[in-house]
Amino acid sequence: MNRRKNGTPLVHTRPARIAMAALVLAATGALTATFVSGGGKGTADAATSLDQFVSIENVPPNVQNPRPAAGASTGRFTVDCGTNGNGKFSPDNPVAQPGIRNGAEHVHDFVGNLAITANSSDADLDASGTTCRNGDKSSYFWPVVRIDKTVRSGRQVQQALAQTQPMVVCPSVGKRLRAVPTEARGTVDRLLAELDRQQAAANQRMTASRGRIDAAFNREVIDSLRARRAAMIKQISTTITTAGGNQPGLVSLVDCDVSYDDMHARMPGSAHRASVKAAQAANPRIQCPAVRDRLPGVPDRALAEVNRNLDDLDRQISEANERLITSRGQDGPAFVDNAILGPLRAKRVAVLDRIATAIGRQAPRPQGLEALAGCTLDQAPSTTAAPSSAPTTAAALPDPQGPNLELPGNTGGIVRPAQVLIEYRGNPVSTVVPMPKFLRALTGDAKPTSRGPANARATWTCSGFTDRLSDKYPICPAGSQVQRVHDFPGCWDGRNVDSDNHRNHVAFADKATGACPQGFRAIPQLRITVAYDIPRSVQVKGQYALDSFPEENHNPFSDHNDFVNVNSAQTMQRIATCINKGKNCS
Predict the structure, then answer these.
(1) How many CB atoms lie within 10 A of CB 584?
(2) pLDDT digits (tens, 9 = 90+) for 68-121
(3) pTM of the shown model
(4) What is the spatial distance between Cα 347 and Cα 286, in angstroms, rounded to a whole number?
(5) Buried b (16+ CB within 10 A) or exposed e, 501-517
(6) Where do the DUF1996 domain residues begin and end (predicted)?
(7) Does residue 395 carry a pLDDT above 90?
(8) Is-contact 52 460, C-beta < 8 A?
């Protein structure tokens, strides 16, 4: 805990937000998190005393920088991808929850890749445009910061948790498969059904956690499910490949998560009150019917052609979503209908016909695929949450709505970054090897309360104070910017671009020496520094906060950042060479 010079805890009043127990978990190892309110007064009023903010001047220097040894790589390569001037905001979580719409339950700033969504394939990412000046198509994204001066009762948050049934959410494997050979279709369908049964069983276990958050129990459920899903998904991949299909590893779809989005839906928030008119300002995206899970078994001679066409369908959606970003503000809905949705439907009709024809040459032609051609602009407001007397699962979390792209519990005006510095750095004890293309990486943990704090990282500081990082929101001196410093793992296992928990294929170097763990090799270590001009009066009053999952309730220790490397092999080699030669490049 940060303290004043006299040793007393540094506590600031922050209206209407409730302290979470994640930091208590980190300090004490407690397993069950509960909401803490009232500052010991036995109430949950709007003037709750909170320990979520700290004067950066009271945080002691704590950043360790190992001294470079012989053979170190001391260079630095910077990339200018802007500050999200295009306004690509999204509640998707493409790395941690691929294929799950609104997986983040909060809004991210995106820079770099223009096309990325939760459903993007590697081919889609590679074909995308970018905001980066050097052509880097990588995707860099982090939760937004908002200023919210409204008052929320802590009691509302407690009541929302008390009514919430945690749910297990898993990526759909069927919707991400490539063409399944005819002889493998029956086995694959059986295995997909087993995956559904596994998830249902895990959800049944989660009924024991209704109304509370138990990090240890959540880990037990998810770890057990992950092990069984990994075996089943590997069997699906092997079955398809053995039958002559082309099915690369599906490791990105193994991990599941515990969701408390019902809690979001039960909390009052402006998103549920947003009008249809206001919703038109929300960040739209193209929604198209899934095709991959609607196909029959594909004859051997048609597999390659069907896969090419399935990839075309994915690419068309990514291109349409990119067009939405780059053409924003042009002639309203009529422009979208005439210039994006209409042409997209025509192209999908042609591709779906090619798929049906390819299959029909060798087997019965699939019927009804043309019904999957039409797509929509998904930006309408959701229905309101179910009342407290309704069944345990409330209405689905709505898309971000209104001019501020609000969600229940994540409200207020988004603070646009004043600066975003993206830099690739070296290793203190060795040279670096290029990152592989399409490497996925995470830093921090969006859910230290419901998953435990093992992967959480302190990120908060102020300009001029980069020798110290805090797990609390900083209050900066006049003239100093609020900053978030996100350091990514700088070591790679040399084989995989992802892993079943999205973490095990990369690792952080040793804090004291900078050496990578045994079996790992140093790669250009990514650091992203996001800076904000936030009025000091807002800081002192505790009126800025991170978008978060509902159970974190804007916990500053839940800060995180995600990355997909879409640099070309040539560019990544240039980055590694610059760093190894000790140069500063861009």
Answers:
(1) 12
(2) 999 999 999 999 999 999 899 999 999 999 999 888 989 999 999 999 999 898
(3) 0.87
(4) 14
(5) bbbebbbbbeeeebbbe
(6) 425-565
(7) no
(8) no
